[in-house]
Structures are given as C-alpha cells and as structure tokens.
C-alpha cells in the first residue's frame, strides 16, 4: 500500500513553512518550493467572508482547499498560528479560534509547510512523524497523488472524501454532494446527495471501473488499493509537468481538468448528458440508446405504461408472470468443475 507521508522539513524555507510559535498573518503567503501553490487568506466573489485556503499560483488563483469553509471569518481578518505541540489554530481579528487541526502531540519541533503536492503538512522535525496534513480534510478538489478512501491512523480508520461547495466558486460552505470510495468493499467511486446515491462508477476491475468503459490510462494512471490498513483511490499524471485536478461541483457533477498554456481544459465529466441519474430506470429497468427499457423485454413490462409514455421511468418494470415455487425461480444444483 502506498505511503502518503510527506516529510515537511526537507528543503523547507522561510517562504513555505511555519515553525512553532510563528503566525501567518492575513496579508502573508506560504509558497510551495516548486512555485505551483500558494496558501493564504482570500475572499470569494461578492463576499466579505475571509477564508484560509490553498490555491494554484497562476492568473486564475484556482482554490483547491479551504480550511474553514463552514466557519468563515466575517467582516475581519485572520491569522494562522502553529502551537508548540504542533496544533494549527485559525483565529479571527479578536483572537477567537474559528478552526483548528485538533490536538497534536509533538515531542520535538513541529513545523507546518506547504508541499509541492499542494497540501499543507505539519510534522515533527526531530522524528519526521506527520502530525496532520490537509489531505486528511479535503474540500471539493482531489489533486494528484492524493488518497480518496479509508486510511488507518493510529487505532482508528479515517474516511477521506470530497465535499462540494455550496455554490461553486462563490460559497465554500460544504454543499449537499460528496464523493467517496464505496464503503461495502466493491471499490467503486460513488457520488451521494445526502444519503441518496446519484452516480457510481461500477466496481474496479484492476484497470478501470466497469461502469465507465470509455476510461483510459493514456494520460493519467489510476490506482485502487486495498489492505488491512485501508482502501483508497488515487491518480497520477503520466507527464508530471502537466497539472491535473478533479473537482466535485455544487451540481453534483465531477469534472477532471488539466492545464495547458491557454488555461484549464475539461477532460471529462461524470455524469454527463448521455448518462441517466442513478436508478433512473427503476427495478428491472436498463438504460440503452438514450432511453430506459425492461431488462428482458419478453419477460417484463413497464409497471406503469402511462408513466413510461411520459418518460417517467422510476417505477421500473415487473414480470409478465409472477414467480412461483414450481417452474420459475432459482434452481439448486452443483457446479460443473470440468
């Protein structure tokens, strides 16, 4: 199983790191060493709310992570403080804590730095132990080499998932959609609206998800891994010079983008216009050629023909002849092992 444990103090500089007792003020930035990412405070369009976030360092300043999406600093400034025990505190202008990483227990000299991966990492510089990292608390964006799934930390299992913004590019408060690795060990990616499934990729077959036959690995390598210490999905560009991102938007659609000299290019989205919503065809219904059909048309018929004429398919299909215990149903027998 791949280890996602970056060491913060390798190559750290004053511009990309905080040491114990230091503060990142509202008008200051942390920069990743490769220059791709910046971390600081920002406002969204039309808002006076202040957020701590990480963005891509270009003309678009595309935000990829937000610390306090559900607890904005209202009509004021903020500061980020690293305590001697390795805990990060986000405070408003009257020194009230609006967000923190939770209690950490550094026995050495903690340091927080913005990595070239686009993640903020807190580690103990004496032992190299990672105390916390922003990839444990994703927002709406999945960057390359970032796990999405379940990881064992100490004696508990951490679930890492994407959460949409309430309004894309405007309000980073967690929205109604989230995307996660299936918890029932089918190892597929599932998008939920609350507790309702709206899209799934189908199980992983070792190379692709079987519900996504057009998926290729010609530009990006996809990995699904599972062991006793957890299960997760991650991806990596085959050309490391190209920046990619996966975004769950506030309408429930997941987009994959890559960046070229002209800006961000949409590579694919799911679901798209050709994909029906999850379970749209109802029980015993299948989606084919742009419409719903009964799974076996000579054995099933639409449960409500009037609804189907009006393209309301959620009622599904039912058998022409109900099952009974004489001539229909499952038959017990032995497997021919030849």
From TrEMBL:
Q: Which CDD domains match?
A: B_lectin
| Key words of the record | Disulfide bond, Kinase, Receptor, Signal, Transferase
Task: Identify the SUPFAM superfamilies for this entry.
Answer: alpha-D-mannose-specific plant lectins
Any GO molecular function? protein serine/threonine kinase activity
Membrane topology, as annotated, equals:
Single-pass type I membrane protein
Q: Which reaction does it catalyse?
A: L-threonyl-[protein] + ATP = O-phospho-L-threonyl-[protein] + ADP + H(+); L-seryl-[protein] + ATP = O-phospho-L-seryl-[protein] + ADP + H(+)
Keyword Transferase listed: yes
One GO CC annotation:
membrane
Documented EC number(s): 2.7.11.1
PROSITE patterns for this protein: BULB_LECTIN
Enzyme class, broadest EC rank: transferase
Q: Localized where?
A: Membrane
Bulb-type lectin domain residues are 15-135
Q: Which SMART domains does this chain map to? A: B_lectin (SM00108)
InterPro entries linked: Bulb-type_lectin_dom, Bulb-type_lectin_dom_sf, S_locus_glycoprot_dom
List GO BP terms, alphabetically. Answer: recognition of pollen; response to other organism
Name the Gene3D superfamilies on file.
Bulb-type lectin domain (2.90.10.10)
Q: What is this protein called?
A: non-specific serine/threonine protein kinase
Q: Which organism is it from?
A: Rhynchospora pubera
Taxonomic classification, please?
A: Eukaryota, Viridiplantae, Streptophyta, Embryophyta, Tracheophyta
């Amino acid at each position: 199983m791949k280890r996602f444990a970056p060491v913060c103090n390798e190559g750290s500089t004053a511009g990309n790191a905080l040491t114990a007792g230091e503060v990142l003020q509202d008008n200051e930035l942390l920069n990743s060493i490769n220059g791709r990412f910046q971390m600081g405070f920002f406002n969204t369009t039309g808002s006076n709310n202040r957020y701590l976030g990480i963005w891509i360092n270009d003309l678009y300043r595309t935000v990829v992570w937000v610390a306090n999406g559900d607890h904005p600093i209202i009509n004021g400034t903020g500061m980020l403080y690293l305590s001697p025990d390795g805990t990060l505190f986000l405070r408003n202008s009257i020194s009230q804590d609006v967000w923190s990483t939770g209690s950490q227990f550094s026995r050495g000299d903690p340091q927080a730095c913005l990595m070239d991966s686009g993640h903020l990492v807190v580690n103990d510089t004496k032992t190299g132990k990672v105390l916390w990292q922003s990839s444990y608390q994703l927002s709406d964006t999945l960057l390359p080499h970032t796990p999405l799934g379940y990881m064992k930390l100490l004696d508990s299992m951490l679930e890492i998932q994407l959460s949409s913004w309430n309004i894309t590019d405007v309000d980073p408060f967690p929205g109604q959609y989230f995307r996660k690795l299936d918890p029932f060990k089918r190892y597929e990616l599932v998008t939920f609206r609350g507790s309702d499934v709206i899209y799934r990729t189908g199980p992983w077959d070792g190379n692709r998800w079987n519900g996504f036959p057009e998926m290729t690995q010609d530009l990006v390598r996809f990995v699904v891994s599972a062991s006793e210490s957890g299960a997760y999905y991650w991806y990596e560009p085959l050309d490391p010079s190209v920046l990619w991102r996966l975004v769950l938007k506030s309408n429930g659609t997941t987009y994959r983008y890559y960046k070229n000299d002209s800006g961000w290019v949409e590579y694919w989205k799911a679901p798209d216009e050709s994909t029906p919503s999850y379970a749209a065809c109802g029980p015993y219904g299948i989606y084919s050629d742009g419409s719903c059909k009964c799974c076996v048309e000579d054995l099933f018929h639409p449960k409500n023909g009037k609804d189907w004429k009006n393209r309301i398919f959620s009622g599904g299909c039912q058998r022409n002849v109900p099952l009974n215990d004489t001539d229909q149903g499952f038959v017990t027998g032995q497997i021919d092992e030849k």
